[in-house]
Every structure is written in C-alpha cells, then in structure tokens.
Amino acid sequence: MQHILNETYRDQVADYVHKSPLYGMPDFYNENFPVLPYGQNLSTEGLSQTAPSAIIWGELVVVPGAGHWSFRDRPIRFNAELRSFLKFLEY
C-alpha cells in the first residue's frame, strides 16, 4: 500500500483489503469503480485474440446480479454452470 501517497486513502484501501482476502478487494472495487450493467452496447471493434488458447469455443453465460467475481456473487449458479461445462468435457 506504500505506493498510495494519500494517507487517508491508503488507510481506506487497507481497511477493505485486510477485511478479507476474498471480499475486501472486490468490495473496494464495487464501491469505488462502479460499472454499467450487462447488456450495454459496447463496441468490440479492434479487439482481437493474439495469444494461443486451450479452449477456443464456448457459450456465453450471463449470470444476472453477478459481476467479475461471479463465483462469489452467485456461487450456486456459478457451480451449476461449471459442472455443466466439466461434464461436457468428459465426452
């Protein structure tokens, strides 16, 4: 945290981060850097995949009410989707 020069802000960040490794930082980001909900019309122009990928196919699953940490926000739904994917790989 020493790279954060403002002492008050540094203390606030430390409180969030040290609250819990699993919840602290995501809570901090959710509170301080809100994003628009899914369904927004963002342009993907200019985006490309340049690195090799082990999985180059898939299905987009949107989990309502979940953010970047969907496994934390909606664990039951996340686990169900993950199990479905893993079962598919068995065949």
Describe the protein's architecture and organization.
This protein has 2 domains: 1-36, no CATH class; 54-91, no CATH class. The protein has 91 residues and is mostly helical. The protein is extended, with a radius of gyration of 18 Å. The chain has 4 helices and no strands. The longest helix is centred in the last third of the chain and has 16 residues, at 75-90. Helix 1 (7-19) packs across helix 2.
Keywords for this structure?
91 residues; AB_hydrolase_fold; 4 helices; mainly alpha; 2 domains; single chain
Specify Rg, calculated over alpha carbons. 18 Å
Helices and strands, in order, run as HHHH
Largest sheet features: none
Number of strands: 0
Global geometry? extended
Structural class: mainly alpha
Mean pLDDT: 78
Overall helicity? 40-55%
**Distance between the first and last residues' Cα:** 47 Å
Low-pLDDT sequence parts: none
Number of helices: 4
Beta content comes to under 5%
Task: Count structural domains.
Answer: 2
InterPro entries: AB_hydrolase_fold (IPR029058)
